[in-house]
Amino acid sequence: MSMSQDGERSAELLEEIRQLLELNGENPFKVRAFEKAQGVVSGCSDLKKRAQAGTLTELDGVGKGIAEVLTEFLLKGQSTVRDDLKSKLPAGLLDLVQIPGLGPKKAKQLIEELGIQSIGELEYACRENRLLKLKGFGEKIQAKILEGIRFRQSTQDQARIVEAEPAAQALSAHLKKSLGSSVRVELTGALRRKLEIVDRFEFLIEEPKSGAATTRSKAQEALDSFLKKNPAVLKTFLHFSTADQFGYEWAKTTGSEAHWKVLGSPASFSVKTEEEFYSKLKLPWIAPELRETGEEVAFAKKGSLEKLLPQDGIVGVFHNHTNQSDGTATLEEMVEAARALGYRYIGISDHSQTAVYAHGLKTDDLKEQEKAVRKLQEKYDDIRIFWGVESDILADGELDYSTAQLKRFDFVVASIHSRFKMDRDQMTTRLLKAVRNPATRFLGHMTGRLLLGRPGYEFDTEKVIEEAKKCDVAIEINANPARLDIDWRWGTKLRAEGTLVSVNPDAHEVEGLKDTAYGVTVARKALLPKTQVINSREVKEVEKWLSRK
Ligand SMILES: [Zn+2]
Ligand SMILES: [Zn+2]
């Protein structure tokens, strides 16, 4: 530490301790003392000397306690007081209070009452409307917290596709406007492949054969002016190409490394379009989102890309919530929304009783809901309403509700919502048991991960995929852009086993039904044939599949 740094860094430490004291609920005088000392300390040029001589207490506002803290820090480069305070805090508190609008008191309440330990979990809880019924919270506060989380995420160096896409569109529009309508600007890179998380934006810009330098400097200026107004935008890379080479460059900047390698890393040649590029390689055009592992090239060669689930290949959707548990829309609103999207069936599955935080349904509520669903069905002949449940997988692998009750549902989604921290073997056993339960038709958000939020729990994924095949259980592709779980990287295994999957929106509001599109992208990236996606099938076939319990 140089001398001037000593003062600044010491003041930072005091500020850190002040915050920790506050979070620990220590007495306000002590908290204020750590605040007051900061000014003196940061302006003092001989701190270290004073620490060595034991004269820190001569400074205004530096008492014995603070002097001890500073001495340890200045001479040994550590702080026991800070570390102790940190270890006393409930897990997650330090993270949660980073969210604008979330103070220590409310953060503690969230930890205690909802078991939230990370920002990712908090965001998900907001989306599932779990904050609404807490004392002192309400719709406004929940919305404000969600906004705070979004703000924080937007200032980090990674983004999920749901946040990245609109930001990239805005930037693209700005580039186009600045360069003029005759200049071609295309999104490329990982976001064009619709990867679930990206750390950069990439664009390919057409430049003229002569005067390329002008286009380049204009584009750079446009980017700089955009960044000035939107400092939180991800790292952005601009690529340039003449019209003659555009097809080649677009393919090269879009495909993953593995994709490009399997194509044989072709040296540059002149082609205006990607179709021409692939056709030169004797391949049909490969959709950008498929260009990941390289396996897709073999699919293209065999002509089997057409067998994949198409983007519009979903016929109906399972796993949707209503305001009976933690959704915001009524049963009828959800059904109407599904009709409006052209779906031929919708599966309603609210939370089960163990999920108390989500207002899981008690046995009596179920009777009522069953009646309501059957009654509403009479109103429609163009959409089938399946009545189901998202049953909690309990710690021992059993499902919520009695066997008799489980049999009454048209379908059961079995999901884990608690006890994430089991050892790998226990968790595998738990999941296998749930899969083997004859009531289970779908395994919900299999790994429990929240993208940029929390990793999934540990278990033997291969075994569960194999068991699901044996038991004719569909593994969910949870289409919520915060989950996208099961991951497309399991595609090879899923295909090898022939395990069914189901693209489920897990909608908690009407708008959530549209998340299905993200799930379809996952199925496509996994190169899953349409036949392996249960909800690409017509009503009759699905009914038949469901009835085999
Ligand atoms: Zn769930
Ligand atoms: Zn759900």
List keywords for this structure.
DNA polymerase, domain 1, 549 residues, seven-stranded parallel β-sheet, three-stranded mixed β-sheet, 4 domains, Beta Polymerase, domain 2, 23 helices, 46% helix, alpha/beta, binds zinc ion
Structural description of this entry:
- This protein is an alpha/beta fold.
- It folds into four domains: 86 residues, Orthogonal Bundle (DNA polymerase, domain 1); 58 residues, Orthogonal Bundle (DNA polymerase, domain 1); 147 residues, Beta Polymerase, domain 2 (2-Layer Sandwich); 231 residues, Metal-dependent hydrolases (TIM Barrel), CATH 3.20.20.
- Helices cover 46% and strands 11% of the residues.
- It has 23 helices and twelve strands.
- The protein has a seven-stranded parallel β-sheet with strand order 6-7-8-9-10-11-12. A three-stranded mixed β-sheet has the order 2-4-5, with helices on both faces.
- β11, α21 and β12 form a beta-alpha-beta unit.
- α3 packs across α4 and α10 crosses α11.
- The longest helix is centred in the N-terminal third of the chain and has 21 residues.
- The radius of gyration is 28 Å and the shape is globular.
- The model has no long low-confidence stretch (mean pLDDT 93).
- It binds zinc ion (2 copies).
- The site of one zinc ion has 4 residues, from loops.
Question: What is this structure, in a nutshell?
Answer:
With 549 residues, this protein is of the alpha/beta class.
